[in-house]
Design goal:
The chain is built from six helices and five strands. It has helices at residues 2-46, 78-82, 84-97, 110-120, 132-135, 162-174; strands spanning 68-72, 102-105, 126-127, 142-146, 152-157.
Length: 177
């Protein structure tokens, strides 16, 4: 009889433990996606959008006559490093025609940015130690076309396709906004 009582007590404890584990798993599964969804909607609301004003920063000088192409890069970004040949071509195109100024912004230190600029090998006007959150930029690489009034006209995010690269080169060469 004692053994039966012990067995029932152990079964009850085991069943209770299994139920608790199940409840914890359900809470984690439900809470995880919900909290991700909430974070995503918050990020989207704060993210830079076409048609809105580009956030003003005293150390960033945007061209108020022609507009500016802003490259948001990071020295630790794999896609930024893989895109160096495009940036070189872009800067060479921009320097030939001077149709549209190009400004690169980085969250990294000045020395890291200087080393990255040497890799690009062109005259890169760069601003280091920028707070991307205050610029509403959520990732790198991000390329933003800002018109002469300071409004965002176009945004390209992530690794670019050849068509996107061609579109950006055309904008820089012709100064079309």
């Amino acid at each position: 009889m004692n053994r039966t009582l012990v067995r029932h007590a152990l079964e009850s404890v085991t069943n209770t433990a299994v139920l608790l584990v199940c409840v914890v798993v359900v809470v984690v599964l439900v809470r995880g996606p919900l909290s991700l969804r909430l974070r995503s909607s918050r990020t989207i609301a704060e993210e830079l959008q076409e048609g809105e004003a580009f956030p003003k920063q005293s150390e960033l000088h945007l061209d108020t006559t022609r507009g500016t192409l802003v490259l948001a890069l990071s020295t630790t970004c794999r896609f930024c490093a893989e895109s160096v040949p495009f940036y070189q071509h872009l800067l060479q195109s921009g320097n030939k025609t001077l149709a549209l100024p190009i400004l690169a912004v980085f969250p990294n230190s000045e020395s890291d940015v200087s080393n990255f600029a040497k890799k690009v090998g062109a005259n890169l006007y760069a601003a280091s130690a920028q707070d991307f959150r205050s610029l509403h930029i959520s990732g790198t690489p991000t390329i933003v076309l800002v018109d002469s009034s300071g409004k965002v006209r176009r945004i390209w995010k992530g690794m670019l396709s050849k068509d996107q690269e061609h579109e950006i080169l055309e904008v820089v060469q012709r100064g079309r906004i």
